[in-house]
Amino acid sequence: MKYITFGEIMLRLKSPGLERFFQSPSLEATFGGGEANVAVSLANYGEEADFLTALPDNDIGYACARELRKYSVGTDQIVYVPDSRLGIYYLETGANQRPSKVVYDRDYSAIALAKPGTFNFAEAFAGYGWMHITGITPALSESSAALSMEAVKAAKEAGLTVSCDLNFRKNLWKYGKQAHEVMSELTKYVDVIVANEEDVQKSLGITADVEVESGELDIVKYEALSNKVLETYPNVKIITITLRESFSADRNGWSACINDRKMFYRSRRYEMTDIVDRVGGGDSFSGGLVYALNNYEDHKEALEFAVAASCLKHSISGDFNLSSLDEVKKLMKGDGSGRVQR
To answer: Which CATH architecture has domain 2-211+218-332?
Structure first.
């Protein structure tokens, strides 16, 4: 199967190590963004994955595409826009009780200004079997929301399976529409949902009595929440909910649950300490899930693959999950000792 993801990729500027912004006069420059991160994961697992976006028609845009190709992601469908810019996000990595911080500078980016008709989605999706999008792209601007709707409709018309990570970002929804106004409509064209409890509440307006602030998870309530989503959206075949217990910036509990209308299942729980970089952790889960749903018959096993993949991502700096298939499979089997492999 061929996969395609659609959304925004940004220049990522990170303070070195665990430093505060400009504690030293340098920033580490890489690239990253939800849908691009998923494409990199899929390509890293040996799948054929392309990324569709709009980039500035300049050296920065070319460097971004070159970075994607470095990880075997297809870039032939990218549209280059003259006199435009690449969005930026600044990252300060937290430690202990100091949280990580993200500052966005992505207004008026090439993809945020792109309008319906910029992409010929019917042609772009020809020959693909799966399309992935997130709730971040519709949050960028009214035109990118319209583009996102155009994309999912075209994908369904072309017979693709559509997955969506709801990915609510409160700092992005500022062009006059509430997240649930847009995402509740877009979700009508989605087959597989990835979310956490806040995403479901803020993006879909569906609530359940779910509380994780204490560090305790009531799985029965998550099953009720997932059932509510499936009842509301009969088109959705599978919903997965990631379960992050955040005890500090360095220590998280990590697991997920899946509801495929036949069964509800919670994965193994990982205790992650000494986290290197949690940005992109959700995207690595999405990438692992999309891969596993197409390579494992058992949805429980598919969920375990996705959770293991995203657990490993927390040990890797940068947006991209560079864990190999073999590493993920070993962790799934319980080999999480971290011993040197010789």
So the answer is: 3-Layer(aba) Sandwich (3.40)
